[in-house]
Automatic annotation (TrEMBL):
Species in which this protein is naturally found: Candidatus Avibacteroides avistercoris
Full protein name: Helix-hairpin-helix domain-containing protein
PANTHER family in the cross-refs: ENDONUCLEASE/EXONUCLEASE/PHOSPHATASE FAMILY DOMAIN-CONTAINING PROTEIN 1, ENDONUCLEASE_EXONUCLEASE_PHOSPHATASE FAMILY DOMAIN-CONTAINING PROTEIN 1
Pfam families in the record: HHH_3
Keyword Membrane: yes
Keywords: Membrane, Transmembrane, Transmembrane helix
PROSITE patterns: PROKAR_LIPOPROTEIN
SUPFAM superfamilies: RuvA domain 2-like (SSF47781)
Length: 308
């Protein structure tokens, strides 16, 4: 029996060393847990004490403010009132000249910034204001705004306006041709055209522009083709027998040059360019008659102005 117990509790030297190491580890772990717990308890107690002391001081301070009757709470609309207090005062409307003043001056006179910018842009494109009512046409200018600023609009005479006024004062009526007069339509200038009854500077400019695009008139009746020109002026014109109109080289002209002629539109000019690209130079206008873009009347009208 004694041997049995001895064998059961017998440990070798290595076993004893292992048990000692395990015991040392367990002791170290227990010691560290005890130390950490103590430190944690100390740290928890100190902030609590500090917070209580700070709270006591804050409460005492608030009590002093309340007893003194001072207002310490922030006002709910403090930010809004501060912004309003610092807003720049709006200047009362002042006189301004829309032909001369800059946008800043007009804004200070009561115009919204975008309307002032539109006025400046209008002037930059060559526009001028001859009277106060002209401002009502500016984009963004409604009737209410215009009526409010109209008393402050001051338009000073410009050198151009004074020149036009002086010209109008010195204007003398143009002497007109008597009935039955006939002039060469391809040699007439603006002064000659304005002597025809019913033709002023505008109509004369339209006739000269159409003559340039055509290359010259081959018949007085072509005057009736001009858009917005009243009919009946052909009787005042003639074409010199030896006149030869300007011609377009149909095999060399660009599509822009072709379409600029009054008798050719974009699609006809493009058809000519496509023909040249596919088949080479044209030899006669009859080659174009097979294309749907060209009627016989179109080819007859364009024939005097084409060369190959």
């Amino acid at each position: 029996m004694g041997n049995l117990w001895r064998n059961y509790f017998y440990y070798t030297r290595q076993d004893i060393r292992g048990l000692l190491v395990i015991a040392a580890i367990i002791a170290a772990a227990l010691t560290s847990c005890i130390v950490v717990r103590c430190v944690h308890d100390d740290s928890d107690s100190k902030p609590q004490d500090i917070d209580i002391e700070a709270y006591d001081r804050l409460a005492a301070s608030l009590n002093r403010h309340d007893s003194a009757g001072s207002e310490w709470r922030p006002r709910p609309h403090h930010r809004k009132r501060r912004y309003t207090d610092w807003r720049l005062p709006v200047a009362p409307p002042a006189q301004f000249d829309p032909n001369a003043d800059d946008s800043a001056t007009m804004v200070m006179s009561g115009l919204p910034p975008y309307v002032a910018r539109n006025i400046v842009r209008y002037r930059a494109k060559g526009g001028t204001f001859r009277r106060a009512d002209d401002l009502a046409r500016i984009y963004g200018m409604d009737s209410a705004l215009f009526n409010s600023i109209r008393p402050y609009i001051t338009i000073h005479p410009t050198p151009e306006a004074e020149t036009l006024h002086a010209t109008a004062v010195a204007y003398h009526p143009v002497e007109k041709y008597p009935e039955g007069t006939v002039i060469d339509i391809n040699a007439a200038d603006t002064a000659m055209l304005m002597k025809i009854p019913g033709i002023g500077r505008g109509y004369s400019a339209m006739i000269l522009a159409y003559r340039r695009r055509l290359g010259g008139f081959v018949s007085p009746s072509q005057v009736d083709e001009i858009d917005n020109l009243p009919r009946g002026f052909a009787k005042w014109f003639k074409v010199a027998p030896d006149f030869s109109p300007g011609k377009i080289n149909i095999n060399r002209a660009s599509i822009e040059r072709l379409r600029d002629h009054p008798y050719l539109d974009f699609y006809q000019a493009r058809a000519i360019i496509e023909w040249r690209r596919k088949y080479g130079d044209l030899r006669s206008l009859q080659q174009l008659s097979i294309l749907e873009e060209f009627s016989d009347s179109t080819l007859d009208r364009i024939a005097p102005y084409i060369e190959f």
